[in-house]
Amino acid sequence: MAAATPAAAPRHSCAKLSVAVEDPKAAGGGAVFVRATWLPTRFSLAVTDGAGAWVADASDAEVRLRAEQWDQPVAEYLALAERYLAFHQPDSTYSFHDAGKGNRRLSWTFERQGTKLEWRWKLQPSPNTQQTIYGILDFLMDANIRLSEEVVRKTQSFDKLKQEAEKCLQQSERFNTEKAEFEQATFSKFVGVLNSKKAKLRQLRDKVAELESADKPPKDEEEENSTDRTELFEEGSDKEASVHDEPSETGSGDPHSSPEKSAATSRGRGRGRKRANK
């Protein structure tokens, strides 16, 4: 046997509505409090102006009949009614008038497809006015306590988030500062290393240039060396020529040789030439 579907939990609402009243000087001063209990197919109302209390209990049949009159599904009819009775709508006109025999009629207006319409519900005097008013005030006090607690929680949560945001901001600023300092230090080290490498390259380049200069003598020195060798060669040739020429002029190349030896040498040469002629 299938399990029964649990009934939907009722929703409760309470709104302060500004209404048009027959006697503006009456208690309540043109405002009423409407407490409503909303169920899937019906709803109930409890209204007070501070002096009296009225109630209405819309049954399933009544709600279905009203929904059919307006060509609406029951759920859509209840949703529209909750919209105007759970919250005060500024564009709606509310009224709370006498309906005879102590009854009151609560009405409100709304627009549908460009046409202004009015819904009305008749309320009867509460069998226990004080109990009804107490129930409305108790609901308002509970709602106020819940809202106050929620405001406190939201405020504490906001303060906590604000403190965390400030901490995050401080951390972000510190990280940015540390990042800038790290980048500056890294850049300074890089510049120092780069400059030292450049200096080392210049030293190596100068050393290579010195070695090349030492292995290859300059052009001026080569020309000077070649000139010196040429002069030495010419001097050597002049000395040889003078050695061969002196005997012909003086008769002997040896200063210690005698005249007789020179004369004999000349005669010997003369005989040799004569033999050759013969």
TrEMBL record:
Annotated GO MF terms: DNA binding
Residue stretches making up the XRCC4 coiled-coil domain: 157-204
Protein's name in the database: DNA repair protein XRCC4
Region (Disordered): 209-278
Compositional bias of kind Basic residues: 268-278
Alphabetical list of PANTHER family matching this protein: DNA REPAIR PROTEIN XRCC4
Biased composition (Basic and acidic residues): 209-219, 226-247
Gene Ontology annotations of biological process type: DNA recombination; double-strand break repair via nonhomologous end joining; response to X-ray
Cellular-component GO terms for this entry: DNA ligase IV complex; DNA-dependent protein kinase-DNA ligase 4 complex
Residues covered by the XRCC4 N-terminal domain: 32-125
